[in-house]
Fold this protein.
Amino acid sequence: MTSESVQIETPQQPTPAQQFTQLFSATRRGARLARLLAVEQLVAWGWPRDGERTDAVALVVAELAANAVMHGRLDGRGFRLGLALLPSGRLRIEVTDPCGERLPSASREAVEGGRGLVIVDALAADWGVHPYPPSGKTVWAEVSAMRAGVGRPPCW
Ligand SMILES: Nc1ncnc2c1ncn2[C@@H]1O[C@H](COP(=O)(O)OP(=O)(O)OP(=O)(O)O)[C@@H](O)[C@H]1O
Ligand SMILES: [Mg+2]
């Protein structure tokens, strides 16, 4: 019997260079912790603690996490925060909650009533909602991590 090395070609997904994901309790404390840990993660990635972009990400995380707790909570279930620095130079924020039946509208005209999604809309280059099977949803937002025309994190 001959042994041949078999080469299996696995399709490679483009992976973000830096990513973070964590589960939090669906409480005000959990939402606050999500914002604090997001900032700590950005600082660990070399972002300035008091920078404009860091503040923008913190605000977006705070509003999406608060919404997950206020509007997307199911008893006994938490929410998940994901951060990923994309090759495009944007920082993608994802907040996943277990309540897929109630979806905030991603259309800018429909962002009325509260101020949370208005803030997200103003700070994010883009944002939206997609289902998170089997029964949840992810509200995502992308914030520019770079100054225009600069290929590395700026001195914000
Ligand atoms: N994660 C979510 N799950 C379900 N519905 C949501 C979620 N996030 C937002 N919504 C819906 O979108 C609406 C607008 O959200 P927004 O954050 O702008 O306002 P708010 O949370 O009602 O008030 P505020 O943020 O000012 O305290 C909410 O009232 C809610 O109906
Ligand atoms: Mg809100």
Summary: The chain has three helices and five strands. The longest helix spans residues 52-70.
